[in-house]
Amino acid sequence: MPFHNGAYYPYSSLTQGTHSSDGIPSVLNSPISHAASAPSMTPSSGASTFLPFKFRPRRESVDWRRINAVDIELVMSQLDVDALQEHISTVTFCSLDGERCQRCQSPVDPALVKLLQLSQLMVEWLLHCQDLLSLNLRAAEERLVAASLEREQLQAQSRKQEEKMKELTAELKHRRKVIRTQQSLFAPRISSSHKCPHCEKYFLNNSFLQNHLQRRHPDEFQTQLQSDEEKKSQMASLKQEISSLKQQVVQQQQDLQAKIAEEKEQQHLHRELQRELDRFKSEEMARMDRMIEDSRDGMRREIKFLCNQNFQALSEVSQPSRTKTPSPVREPERDVDRYQEMHLQAIQKLELQMKKQDRKWESKLQEIKSEHESEKNQLLKELSQVQSLVEEQQELSRKLQEKEQTIRAQREQ
User: Hey, which residues does 332 pair with through a beta bridge?
Assistant: First the structure.
């Protein structure tokens, strides 16, 4: 059913029985939806899809029995959209050319035909717009699915980076602990007197110790120098590695924040698009309700106006042209004059109204006569054409009989 939550969703170019991405059946069998099934018009081809639009010719006949069988009040009270769907194709693409009244066999009023044609074009255009909106909505949903997949990938990468960052942080803590241990080992010697590691001598400062080592322990001094250089290089490499790890952590945090911001922006865009679609649907439904209500009010006013005119005309015809009111027997002469003046004014007013009504009815009668004359002339013209055709057929039959008689006479000879 193409109606969902009070909104009409046209059948898409998918085969009948399939469903669109929002759970609405896609079973529209119009040329607009068939044109949308081209490869270049798929929802994934772009953010907005423009379908080619062309009005269909109206060639279908009207099934008046099915139309008369529809109960409009029942459809309105029960919101029977199935009945609307059953007759939408017939009403939209039917043709009233050549249709006549079933009672009087007179042609349909051109104004009503024009009104129906305008309604058909509006319905066909609304079907096209709904189809376009469905395609755009499907494309937006596909983009949302792609964004969700990308979001999941980014979250997986973020979890991997977090695990790696935890490992690097643990290694960094371990190395800091090693450094603190080494510093704690060297701290007492630096704070107190400097003792030679190879003998029992003490020195006031490090320079004296170095001189002692160069003189008394040259081999150990060289070994110590090498070990100190190795330690320094190791410390430098550790510091460099720590700084690089810090930079990597900062860079990863920045990338993660940028991805989170991008994801939030995409979610915001999706919410904005959804709100815009909801607003558009509500505006369209409100506009259609207003149009239907205005048309109902106009028809009610016109019916009421016609009823008032008929009632006024009947009342004016039934009234006598002049009414005589007996004057009071014992009223003053001034009241009698005033009453007579009012009576004369009322009579004049009624006469003017009767004249206007007579002119109006005369004009209507003339119009009816002219229409009758035109119809009469048309019927006479058609009758003359029929008579001429009958005469031609009679003439042909007479000639055929003469030829048959001639052939029969020749055979008898």
Answer: none
CA 257 to the chain's CA centroid: 36
Q: Please name every residue paired with 7 in a beta bridge, in sequence order, or none if there are none.
A: 4
Predicted local confidence at residue 324, as pLDDT: 44
Indicate the SS3 state at residue 148.
helix
pTM of the model: 0.31
- Give the number of other Cβ atoms within 10 Å of residue 87's Cβ: 15
Instruction: Quickly state the pLDDT bin for 168 (edges 50, 70, 90).
Output: very high
Question: How do residues 112-154 score in pLDDT, each as one tens digit?
Answer: 778 888 888 888 898 889 889 999 999 999 999 999 999 999 9
Rounded-to-integer distance, Cα 237 and Cα 249, Å: 18
Start-to-end Cα distance in the chain: 81
Of 126, 149, 140, 144, residue with least CA distance to 43: 140
Please indicate whether residue 340 or residue 20 has the higher confidence score (pLDDT): 340
Q: What is the pLDDT of residue 24?
A: 36
Query: What are the CA-CA distances from residue 45 to residues 32, 48, 58, 89, 129 (Å)?
Result: 18, 8, 32, 30, 18
Q: Tell me the Ramachandran region of residue 191: left when phi exceeds 0, alpha when psi lies from -120 to 50, beta otherwise.
A: alpha
Whole-number mean pLDDT of the chain? 73
Residue type at 3 in one-letter notation: F
Long-range contacts made by residues 29-33, C-beta under 8 angstroms, separation at least 24?
29/89, 30/56, 30/89, 30/124, 30/127, 30/131, 31/56, 32/124, 32/127, 32/128, 32/131, 33/131
CA separation, residue 112 to residues 58, 98, 117, 291 (Å): 16, 14, 9, 17
